[in-house]
Amino acid sequence: MYDVIIVGAGPTGASAALFTAKAGKKTLLLDSDQSITKKAWIENHYGVMEITGPDLVDIGQKQAQKFGAELVQEKVTDIEKNGDGFDVKTESKQYQGKHVILATGLSIELAEKIGLEIKPGTEPRIKQIVAVDQNGKTSVDGIWAAGTVAGTSVHTIITAGDGARVAINIISELNGERYVDHDVLKG
Ligand SMILES: Cc1cc2nc3c(=O)[nH]c(=O)nc-3n(C[C@H](O)[C@H](O)[C@H](O)COP(=O)(O)OP(=O)(O)OC[C@H]3O[C@@H](n4cnc5c(N)ncnc54)[C@H](O)[C@@H]3O)c2cc1C
Fold it and tell me: How far, in Å, is the centroid of ligand 1 from the Cα of 3?
């Protein structure tokens, strides 16, 4: 049983996985390798002078794996409630997770399939998004959404930030107190 299963390993999903894995939560990233970020050339991501989209996505996934997140290249086809968790189904396998984060970018296909509340998008060229509350919770308890699919501005620094924000909300819920992840410069 994973503590957190994250669907989508673009900036949103990998950033969320970095935080949940680094917090010691058993984390699974499932991704179908259709990230729009892989088409980008990025010069407006704070702290990074310039970077290709493919490199940003690759580094983000490696950061999450460095802290123990598992990354599996599979498409999630369905999610079903099972006891106090969820069965997350892919084309070939099934995984169990306590919490699920949808970080599926432009795609609301899975969200619609599992019956989440959908609403019109507000960002340019974004038709529909998953309805979430201020914490990132969707209309199904235990399923969260972040980044582009949750209606944020479609920029890597913001989607990555939103993934981290929602991850911290889940970690805090699992720990029963607000979570902070600060490392200190040595020497
Ligand atoms: C041409 C172009 C140029 C851009 N330039 C910039 C720029 O200069 N600066 C900037 O800040 N932003 C730029 N962006 C926007 C940037 O890509 C987005 O802001 C953002 O980072 C999207 O991140 P995301 O994680 O929400 O979505 P994505 O990066 O699209 O990741 C979503 C992931 O979810 C996966 N997924 C979806 N459904 C499933 C499923 N059912 N099962 C498993 N996996 C699934 C997909 O395969 C994908 O890997 C650009 C975008 C484009 C297209």
Answer: 24
